[in-house]
Amino acid sequence: MGAAVAIIVRKQREIAEVFEGARATSPELARYPEELGIDDSHIFRGLVRRAVLRPVGDGRYFLDEPSWVAMNDRRRRVAAVALVVVLALIIGAALAVGARV
């Protein structure tokens, strides 16, 4: 499962970097995904649903940089919380085993 998440995150980053590299970061500079070599994939549509890629109405999209940063910040917070929970479980298990000995 972790590998699948890593692949999705990498592909999302690649798509965002393509839009960023093309300077498609405002409605005026929006570009067609096809001209940037980006397919209408599940990952692309996910970025649209999360408002990271915003349509301008004629098939062109632009990267909403604040939304991209917010999505990555949220992802980091979730990962940090998951790490704390795992560490707490490991420490709890170690203490429980130590208390029985």
Short description:
The protein is mainly alpha-helical and 101 residues long. It has helices at 2-21, 42-49, 65-100, and strands spanning 53-55, 61-63.
Describe the structure.
The chain has one domain. Helices cover 63% and strands 6% of the residues. It has helices spanning 2-21, 42-49, 65-100; strands at 53-55, 61-63. A two-stranded antiparallel sheet has the order 1-2. The chain is elongated and about 70 Å long. The chain starts with a helix and ends with a helix. The mean pLDDT is 91.
Q: How helical, in percent, are the residues?
A: 55-70%
**Could you report the average pLDDT, rounded to the nearest whole number?**
91
Sheet-strand content, in percent, reads 5-15%
| Terminal CA distance | 35 Å
Shape: elongated
What count of helical segments does DSSP give? 3
Return Rg in Å. Answer: 19 Å
Counting copies of identical and different chains, the oligomeric state is single chain
Order of helices and strands: HHEEH
Detail the poorly predicted runs: none
Record field, number of beta strands: 2
| Main sheet attributes: strand count, strand direction, barrel closure | 2 strands, antiparallel
Helix/strand/pairing category:
mainly alpha
Q: Give me the side-by-side strand order of the main sheet.
A: 1-2
What's the number of domains? 1
